[in-house]
From TrEMBL:
Coiled coil: none annotated. Component of the post-replicative DNA mismatch repair system (MMR). Heterodimerizes with MSH2 to form MutS beta, which binds to DNA mismatches thereby initiating DNA repair. MSH3 provides substrate-binding and substrate specificity to the complex. When bound, the MutS beta heterodimer bends the DNA helix and shields approximately 20 base pairs. Acts mainly to repair insertion-deletion loops (IDLs) from 2 to 13 nucleotides in size, but can also repair base-base and single insertion-deletion mismatches that occur during replication. SUPFAM superfamilies: DNA repair protein MutS, domain I (SSF55271), DNA repair protein MutS, domain II (SSF53150), DNA repair protein MutS, domain III (SSF48334), P-loop containing nucleoside triphosphate hydrolases (SSF52540). Gene3D superfamilies: 1.10.1420.10, DNA repair protein MutS, domain I, MutS, connector domain, P-loop containing nucleotide triphosphate hydrolases. Belongs to the DNA mismatch repair MutS family. This is DNA mismatch repair protein Msh1p, mitochondrial. It comes from [Candida] anglica. InterPro entries: DNA_mismatch_repair_MutS-lik_N, DNA_mismatch_repair_MutS/MSH, DNA_mismatch_repair_MutS_C, DNA_mismatch_repair_MutS_core, DNA_mismatch_repair_MutS_N, DNA_mismatch_repair_MutS_sf, DNA_mmatch_repair_MutS_con_dom, MutS. Heterodimer consisting of MSH2-MSH3 (MutS beta). Forms a ternary complex with MutL alpha (MLH1-PMS1).
C-alpha cells in the first residue's frame, strides 16, 4: 500500500524533492512551491452573480468619509480578488494602487506616483500605471516573469458628465491555464488547465483514503478548444498528471485544507504545480454544455450519459472555472475525448524525468529542453504538429492497430520521398489554424485575420489531400481510404470569394500569427486626392448589391470632390492651392488653403463667390475656406465609408458564424494534417538516423538487434565519436531478467535507458534505432535510475530510492518493463546488497516483468540466488567491457557480453576524475587490506 510506504519522514524527502529538484521546471511549478501561488478564487464573481463586481469610483467627490471612495473601491476589489495583482482601467491607462503599486512598479519598470483622490486628501494613495495598449506587455511580465495571477478590471462605458461615476468590472483573471492568445505562449506544446474531481473522503479523512479510489480528470486547452476527460485512481494520479503536464490545476475549494497539510502521499507532488482552489458547487448556471460543446441537446444527453460522475464533475469544474476567469468569452470546445488508464503506456513523473523525454535537469540544476528525446526526434513542420508529437511522446499507445496505422504512414512517406517532400513543403504554409478557429470562437483578436488564416489552412489542407490521394502508390490506397481525409473546399473558396483580392494576395500578413490587426497601408501624401480614397476595404466590392452600391456612391463622391477642387484650381490659377496639410487619415478638417498675393486672394474670393461664413481664416497672404459644397461632399464620403464599414462588419460576422458551424470539421482537418506532419517527420527521422520498423508480437518480449540511444549518439557524433550498438533479448522463460554489471562509465545506464526509449519510440508509432526490433507491447515503464545529471544529489537518500523501488515492486505487471540501476547503493554494504537481492528476487518471482538490472553486486547476487534456492533459469548475466586498463588509463568499450564483471574499475575512474595521487594510493592500500582480511 502506498499509504503505509510513506510516513512522516517521507514528507521531508518530498518537500526537498519538490523544492529543489524541480526548481525552475516551469514558472508555474516554481510558483506552486510558494504559498501565494495556491489561491482561492471563489470570490471572483461573474455577470450572473448578484454581487457582480461592478463598483463605483467616485474619485474627486468631496463627500466626507472615513476612507476616500477610490481607496474603498480598491479595498473591495482586493477583498474580492485575493492573491491577484489588480490592473484597474482608468481612462486610457491601467493602474496599480497602494502596496501593489509599490511592490510591482519597480519590477515592471514603472514610476510610482501619489494620487490624491480628494481636494483635502493629505495622504493620497500610491499609484503606477501604463497605457492601455501596453496591457499585454505588462500582463506577460506579471504572469510569465513574476509568476503572479492578474485580475484585469475594465471600465464599462463612458464616465458620465457631472456625476463622476465610473463603472468597472473584472473582465478577466489571467492565470497560466487560462491564457488564450498571449504571444509569449509556446505553441509547440499544449497549455492545459486540469481539474481534479477528488474523492470526497479525502477532504474528511485525508490520509486514510483508499489508493484505489477513483479520481476524475478533465483537462482543456483553451486556446485550441481541445477537451479531455479520464477517470483514474488515487495511486495513479500523479503519473497521469505528469503525462498531461498541465500549466495549472484546479481543485474544489473543499480540499483546500488538504493541500495546506499535504497529508496524503498521493498528492504530495501537487506542490510542483500551480494549483488553484475553485468554489465549485455543481452549479451549472455558469456554463451551458450545449453551447460549450456546440452540440444538439438530444445528443448531448446521450453523450453525457456515457460519462462517469467523476468525469462529469471534473469537466464542469473546468467550464465553471473558465466562466469565472474569463466572464466575457464563451469558448467552444470539442466534446471531451475520453482517455482510459489502460490506453496509454504509464510512466510516473520520475521515469519521465530520468528518461529525459521532453526536458532534462542540467548539472547546474536548470531545466533544459535541448538534448532530450523530443528535441532529438522533432522534425515536424508545424507548431500544431509539434504539439501532437509531444502528446504522443507523453502518452505512448498500447493499441497495436493504431500503431500499425502510424507505422504504415511512416513507411509510406519513407518509401515515397517525393510525396513526403511535397506534403511537408505544403505543410509549411498551413499555419496554426486550429488556434485561429478557437480565437474566432472566443471572439479574441481580429476576426478577419483569423478567417483568412483558416481559409489559408483549409485550402492548403485540400492541396495536401489531393497530393496524398493522387500520389499514393496502389499498395497504400487502402490505408489512405481508411484515413478518410476531410476537406472543406467550399468553405475555403467562400472565404476567398468574399475577402478582397488585395488581402488575399498579401499572404505575408497572415502568416504572422502574432499580429492581430490588419493594418491599412498608410496613405502617401498627395494633396489632390482624398487620403480616404486609398483606404483598403476588406470585402470584395461586388459581394452584395448593397456593398456594391455603397462603393459606387463613394467613388462618385470622390469624383465630385476632385471636380470641386479642379474647378477652384482653374479659376484661381495665379494662387497656390492645397488641401490643408492638417488633413490626416480619417481625420478630415475639410479646408482648402489658398496662398498668394493679397490682391489675388481678393480676386479669388470674388471669382469663386465665397461667402463670408465659408471663410475660416483670412491673413494678408493666405486664405482658408470651407465651402458648403466641399463640406457636403465630405460628409457624404464619411457616411458612405461608415456604411461600407458596417456592411463589411455584418458580412464578416455572418461568415464567422458560418465558419463556427463547421468548427468540429475544421479541427478534425487540423488533426489529420498534424497526423501527416508527425508521421512524415518520423519518416525523415527514420531515413536520417537509420531506424527500423518495429514488429509487435503478443508475447512479452523485447528483442533488439544493434540498438542505440539516439540522444547519446547525437552527442557523440558532435564530438566525432561513434556509438557502440548493443543487442537486447528480454522475455520468455529463459531471459526475462538481465543482470548487467561492469565498470563505472561502462555504458550500463545508457543501455538501460536506450531500451526504454526504444519501447517509447515504438509505441508512439516511430521507427526505432536498431537493425531489428520485435517486441510485445509494454503497459508500464518503471525506472529506478537517477537522471544523467546530479539529480541524484538531492534524491539519493535511501528513502527516495526505496519509495521508487517499492513503486516498481508493487505495480509492475508481466507486461511491464523495469529498468533498475544500482539498487542498494544508498546504504551500507551488506544491507544494500540485501535490499538489491530482495528487489531482484521479487521482480523475478512475483512481478515477472521484463527487467534490466544494473548492479555492482553481480557476483554476490548470483551467489545469493543459489544459496536461497531460487530458480535462476530466467536470469541472464551481461557485462560491459573494458578495452584497455593500465596504470593511468581506462577505456570502456561499451559492448555488452555475457558474464559478470568482477571489477568496477572505481580507482581507475577516480584517477581519470583527478583524484589526488595520495588518495589513490590510500585506496589501493585499502583494497589490499580488505583482500587480506577476506583471506584472498
Ligand atoms: P555507467 O552507467 O556504466 O556508469 P553510462 O551509461 O553513464 O555508464 O555511460 C557513460 C558514458 O559512456 C556516456 O555518457 C556515454 O558518453 C558513453 N557511452 C555509454 N554507452 C555508450 C555506447 N554504447 N557507445 C558509446 N559510448 C557510450
Amino acid at each position: 500500500m502506498i499509504r503505509s510506504r510513506v510516513s512522516t519522514g517521507t514528507a521531508e524527502v518530498w518537500r526537498r524533492f519538490s523544492t529543489s529538484v524541480f526548481v525552475q521546471r516551469r514558472f508555474v511549478q516554481i510558483a506552486a512551491t510558494r504559498h501565494r501561488a495556491v489561491s482561492v478564487i471563489d470570490s471572483v464573481v461573474t455577470p450572473e452573480n448578484t454581487s457582480f463586481p461592478t463598483w463605483e469610483d467616485r474619485g474627486g467627490s468631496t463627500k466626507t468619509n472615513s476612507m476616500p471612495p477610490l481607496q474603498k473601491s480598491i479595498q473591495k476589489l482586493r477583498e474580492d480578488n485575493p492573491n491577484c495583482v489588480l490592473l484597474i482601467q482608468v481612462g486610457s491607462f491601467y493602474e496599480l494602487y497602494g502596496d501593489q503599486a509599490q511592490e510591482y512598479a519597480p519590477k515592471l519598470g514603472l514610476k510610482v506616483a501619489l494620487k490624491r483622490t480628494r481636494m483635502n486628501d493629505s495622504d493620497g494613495i500610491s499609484m503606477a500605471g501604463f497605457p492601455i495598449y501596453q496591457l499585454e506587455k505588462y500582463v506577460t511580465m506579471l504572469v510569465h516573469e513574476n509568476e503572479e495571477t492578474v485580475a484585469i478590471i475594465d471600465q464599462i462605458g463612458e464616465k458620465k458628465l457631472g456625476d463622476s461615476l465610473v463603472l468597472r468590472r473584472v473582465s478577466r483573471i489571467v492565470t497560466p491555464g487560462t491564457l488564450i492568445d498571449e504571444t509569449f505562449l509556446n505553441y509547440n506544446k499544449n497549455n492545459y488547465l486540469l481539474a481534479l474531481a477528488l474523492p470526497k473522503q479525502l477532504a474528511v479523512s485525508g490520509e486514510h483514503a483508499d489508493p484505489d479510489t477513483t479520481v476524475g480528470l478533465a483537462w482543456a486547452d483553451l486556446s485550441l478548444g481541445e477537451f479531455n476527460i479520464q477517470e483514474t485512481t488515487l495511486k495513479d494520479l500523479m503519473s497521469d498528471i505528469a503525462r498531461i503536464s498541465p500549466s495549472e490545476i484546479v481543485i474544489s475549494k473543499e480540499f483546500q485544507q488538504l493541500h495546506e497539510v499535504m497529508s496524503h502521499d498521493s498528492l504530495q507532488e501537487l506542490r510542483r504545480y500551480f494549483v488553484r482552489y475553485h468554489n465549485y458547487q455543481g452549479d451549472s448556471s455558469l456554463f451551458n454544455l450545449a453551447t460549450n460543446f456546440k452540440i444538439e441537446k438530444s445528443s448531448l444527453k446521450r453523450r453525457m450519459g456515457s460519462l462517469t460522475l467523476k468525469q462529469t464533475t471534473a469537466m464542469k469544474m473546468v467550464l465553471s472555472y473558465i466562466a469565472v476567469n474569463l466572464p466575457e468569452c464563451n469558448p467552444v470546445f470539442d466534446f471531451p475525448k475520453t482517455h482510459w488508464n489502460n490506453q496509454a503506456l504509464q510512466m510516473d513523473p520520475r521515469t519521465r524525468e530520468a528518461l529525459e523525454l521532453s526536458s532534462r535537469t542540467t548539472a547546474d540544476g536548470k531545466i533544459s529542453q535541448t538534448a532530450t528525446l523530443l528535441s532529438t526526434i522533432r522534425k515536424t513542420r508545424t507548431q500544431s504538429g509539434s504539439r501532437m508529437l509531444l502528446q504522443w511522446i507523453s502518452a505512448p499507445l498500447l493499441d497495436i492497430e493504431e500503431l500499425t496505422k502510424r507505422q504504415d504512414f511512416v513507411e509510406l512517406f519513407q518509401k515515397n520521398n517525393i510525396l513526403s517532400l511535397k506534403i511537408r513543403t505544403q505543410l509549411d504554409s498551413t499555419g496554426d489554424f486550429a488556434r485561429s478557429v478557437q480565437q474566432l470562437s472566443l471572439g479574441s483578436g481580429d476576426s478577419l485575420n483569423h478567417i483568412m488564416l483558416i481559409g489559408e489552412g483549409l485550402s492548403q489542407g485540400s492541396i495536401i489531400r489531393d497530393i496524398l490521394y493522387d500520389g499514393v502508390p496502389e499498395k497504400y490506397s487502402e490505408l489512405i481510404k481508411t484515413f478518410d481525409m476531410k476537406s472543406l473546399d467550399g468553405m475555403a473558396n467562400k472565404i476567398f470569394s468574399i475577402v478582397d483580392e488585395r488581402l488575399r494576395n498579401d499572404r505575408d500578413k497572415f502568416t504572422d500569427q502574432s499580429s492581430n490587426d490588419i493594418q491599412t497601408p498608410a496613405p502617401k501624401k498627395d494633396d489632390q486626392k482624398d487620403t480616404r480614397e486609398r483606404r483598403s476595404f476588406f470585402i470584395q466590392k461586388n459581394h452584395t448589391e448593397e456593398l456594391m452600391e455603397a462603393h459606387d456612391s463613394l467613388a462618385q463622391c470622390f469624383k465630385e470632390r476632385r471636380e470641386i477642387f479642379n474647378d477652384f484650381a482653374t479659376k484661381t490659377s495665379d494662387l497656390q492651392l492645397d488641401i490643408s496639410k492638417k488633413e490626416e487619415y480619417l481625420k478630415h478638417t475639410d479646408i482648402i488653403h489658398f496662398s498668394g498675393t493679397a490682391a489675388n486672394i481678393d480676386a479669388a474670393i470674388e471669382a469663386l463667390s465665397i461667402q463670408p461664413h465659408e471663410i475660416q481664416e483670412r491673413r494678408p497672404r493666405t486664405l482658408v475656406v470651407k465651402t458648403s459644397a466641399w463640406m457636403q461632399v465630405h460628409s457624404r464620403i464619411d457616411s458612405y465609408i461608415s456604411r461600407i464599414d458596417s456592411l463589411e462588419r455584418e458580412i464578416i460576422s455572418r461568415l464567422r458564424l458560418e465558419i463556427l458551424e463547421e468548427i468540429q470539421t475544421i479541427r478534425e482537418i487540423g488533426r489529420q494534417l498534424d497526423f501527416l506532419d508527425v508521421t512524415a517527420s518520423f519518416a525523415v527521422l527514420a531515413s536520417e538516423k537509420n531506424l527500423v520498423r518495429p514488429i509487435f508480437t503478443r508475447r512479452n518480449t523485447l528483442e533488439v538487434k544493434q540498438g542505440r540511444h539516439l540522444v547519446v549518439e547525437n552527442g557523440l557524433e558532435s564530438s566525432g565519436d561513434l556509438f557502440t550498438p548493443n543487442d537486447t533479448k528480454l522475455g520468455g522463460k529463459t531471459n526475462r531478467l538481465w543482470v548487467i554489471s561492469g565498470p563505472n562509465m561502462g555504458g550500463k545506464s545508457t543501455f538501460l535507458r536506450q531500451n526504454a526509449i526504444i519501447v517509447i519510440l515504438a509505441q508512439i508509432g516511430s521507427f526505432v534505432p536498431a537493425t531489428h526490433c520485435k517486441m510485445g507491447i509494454v503497459d508500464r515503464i518503471f525506472t529506478r535510475i537517477g537522471a544523467s545529471d546530479d539529480i541524484s544529489r538531492d534524491l539519493s537518500t535511501f528513502m527516495v530510492e526505496m519509495v521508487e523501488t517499492s513503486g516498481i515492486l508493487e505495480n509492475a505487471t508481466t507486461k511491464s518493463l523495469a529498468i533498475v540501476d544500482e539498487i542498494g547503493r544508498g546504504t551500507s554494504g551488506d544491507e544494500g546488497l540485501a535490499i538489491a537481492y530482495a528487489s531482484l528476487e521479487q521482480l523475478l518471482s512475483v512481478n515477472k516483468c521484463r527487467t534490466l538490472f544494473a548492479t555492482h553486486y553481480g557476483i554476490e547476487l548470483d551467489r545469493l540466488l543459489t544459496e536461497d534456492g531460487k530458480d535462476k533459469s530466467a536470469v541472464e548475466y551481461f557485462q560491459t567491457g573494458v578495452l584497455e586498463s593500465s596504470e593511468n588509463r581506462f577505456i570502456a568499450d561499451h559492448k555488452l557480453r555475457p558474464g559478470i564483471s568482477e571489477r568496477s574499475y572505481a580507482i581507475e575512474v577516480a584517477k581519470m576524475a583527478g583524484f589526488p595521487s595520495r588518495a589513490i594510493k590510500s585506496a589501493e592500500r585499502a583494497i589490499g587490506l580488505i583482500k587480506k582480511r577476506n583471506g584472498l
